[in-house]
């Protein structure tokens, strides 16, 4: 299938987990009504972004995968005939938790999960307190409509992650994400941060010759100290922006991705072909020095 209709759901969240899940399902229905075949939800969409504090009670938000949320979404996926990309807080075992995305195929089948590999630990993003780094490696999933690669938020900054996922045959790279601005920052800093975030992801599209879809949450959280900046977007295999979400509003948008463009761009700009894989061994070092 050369062309795929992809739905991006950019929404705000509340402290009510069921309310957020119900809202996401309504948004999936909205995307499907607009023709979406694959619908991507934002990172940790069933809750507020709780990693702004180190609070043991927040572990109660986690659930098994498969579990209650995937069960509910599987029914919706089968009913609507859409693929759903669902980012959830996974309880793997007692005291063992991951930031995980589940993939549900258009017939409702659970295809598997990807566990976030890169875990940040920044002010207001204390994810290492909650999440064990992923141990499943990088993943692609053959869905009804495309072979999709899933990465999560902080993974966005790492060209190694996108490269490996693309080399595994991903037709599209999806990034569920949750990132925002501290509300006491100046506008120039805000602009620079957003541009850096978008640019690095568009570069993954260019370097690998695959479309990139990034879905971010929106709205004020953390008692007004954080404005999640939305700005969800889809870019084609040459990094061209096909859709750009607002910084302020909830949006459900459907974008057409022409997967045949990957072959076209890889022929004319053969970055993938011309890689000097024999010279890349040093990249496995933490830093290239004498120690």
Radius of gyration: 18 Å
Report the portion of residues in β strands: 25-35%
Secondary-structure element order, as H and E? Answer: EHEHEEEEEHEEHEEEEEEH
Q: Number of DSSP helices?
A: 5
Mean pLDDT: 97
Strand order of the largest sheet: 5-4-3-2-1-15
Beta strand count? 15
The amount of helix comes to: 10-25%
Largest sheet: 6 strands, mixed
Give the N-to-C terminal Cα separation.
50 Å
Q: SS-based structural class? A: alpha/beta
Shape: globular
Poorly predicted runs:
none
Enzyme class: hydrolase
EC number: 3.5.1.53
Protein name: N-carbamoylputrescine amidase
Keywords: Hydrolase
Account of the protein in words:
The protein has 5 helices and 15 strands. It is α/β, with parallel strands linked by helices and 291 residues long. The longest helix has 22 residues. The mean pLDDT is 97.
Question: What would you say about this model in short?
Answer:
With 291 residues, the chain is an alpha/beta fold. It has helices at 17-33, 68-80, 159-167, 187-208, 261-268, and strands at 3-10, 38-40, 83-93, 96-104, 110-115, 140-142, 147-150, 172-177, 180-182, 212-216, 218-221, 226-229, 233-235, 241-244, 251-258.
Defining key terms:
291 residues; alpha/beta; 24% helix; globular; hydrolase
Write the layout of secondary structure elements.
Layout: E1 3-10, H1 17-33, E2 38-40, H2 68-80, E3 83-93, E4 96-104, E5 110-115, E6 140-142, E7 147-150, H3 159-167, E8 172-177, E9 180-182, H4 187-208, E10 212-216, E11 218-221, E12 226-229, E13 233-235, E14 241-244, E15 251-258, H5 261-268
Parallel strand pairs: 1-2, 2-3, 7-8, 8-10
Antiparallel strand pairs: 1-15, 3-4, 4-5, 6-7, 9-12, 10-13, 11-12, 13-14
Protein name: N-carbamoylputrescine amidase
Keywords: Hydrolase
EC number: 3.5.1.53
């Amino acid at each position: 299938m050369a062309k795929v209709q992809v739905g991006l759901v950019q929404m705000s969240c509340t402290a009510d987990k069921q309310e957020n899940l119900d809202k996401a399902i309504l948004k999936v229905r909205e995307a499907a009504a607009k023709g979406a075949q694959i619908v991507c939800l934002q990172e940790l969409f069933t809750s507020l972004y709780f990693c702004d504090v180190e609070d043991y009670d927040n572990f109660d938000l986690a659930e098994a995968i498969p579990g209650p949320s995937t069960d509910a979404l599987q029914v919706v996926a089968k009913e609507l005939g859409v693929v759903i990309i669902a980012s959830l807080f996974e309880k793997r075992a007692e005291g063992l938790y991951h930031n995980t995305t589940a993939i549900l195929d258009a017939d409702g089948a659970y295809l598997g999960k990807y566990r976030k590999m890169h875990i940040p630990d920044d002010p207001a993003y204390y994810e290492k307190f909650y999440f064990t780094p992923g141990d499943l490696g990088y993943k692609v999933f053959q869905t009804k409509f495309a072979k999709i690669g899933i990465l999560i938020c902080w993974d966005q900054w790492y060209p190694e992650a996108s490269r490996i996922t693309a080399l595994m045959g991903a037709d599209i790279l999806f990034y569920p994400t949750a990132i925002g601005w501290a509300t006491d920052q100046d506008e120039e800093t805000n602009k620079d941060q957003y541009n850096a975030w978008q640019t690095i992801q568009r570069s993954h599209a260019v370097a690998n010759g695959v479309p990139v879809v990034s879905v971010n949450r929106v709205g004020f959280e953390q008692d007004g100290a954080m404005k999640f900046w939305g700005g969800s977007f889809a870019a084609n295999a040459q990094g061209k922006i096909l859709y750009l979400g607002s910084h302020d509003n909830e949006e459900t948008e459907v974008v057409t991705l022409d997967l045949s463009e990957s072959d076209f761009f890889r022929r004319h700009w053969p970055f993938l072909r011309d890689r000097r894989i024999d010279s890349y061994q040093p990249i496995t070092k933490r830093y290239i020095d004498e120690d």
